[in-house]
Amino acid sequence: MVHSLETGPTSIRGMAALSFIHLCTTDGPIATPKVVGRGPGLIQESYPVTATVSGKRLSGNLRGICHYDWMSGPPGIGKVQVIATLETGDGALIRVEYGGRADITHGIENARGFASPVFAATDLQYLWLNVTQVVARGTIEGDQIHWDWYQIVEKA
User: What is the pTM assigned to this prediction?
Assistant: First the structure.
């Protein structure tokens, strides 16, 4: 599925408009957090993460050590930072890092956040990920987190 950032064929300064191509979804449980630190208006928690990754071009499981670090404080900003290893369905290992922000003014339940995954692949079949810019939109429902990851491409 392709989503357009702009409606016209070109954007400001004559550059091509951007589109989003759905790369994959990730789904997984949110584990019980471990409080890493507290400060004035600030709580940092660490969540171990496991998730399934489903998509036509990218699928597998997040493996290894993964953590969400939320820093919440006035006015309700959540900061997510994840470092993970993605094991693809065909056995390739890909390092994934992403960080982003979420509005948690009304708590984490039903929060929406945005992040930007970056890949470090060494398997020849997945080298294209190393030069791919991705944005992600995540939602939390109960003890589950869901992300949709989109590849950014220029419209022809």
Answer: 0.82
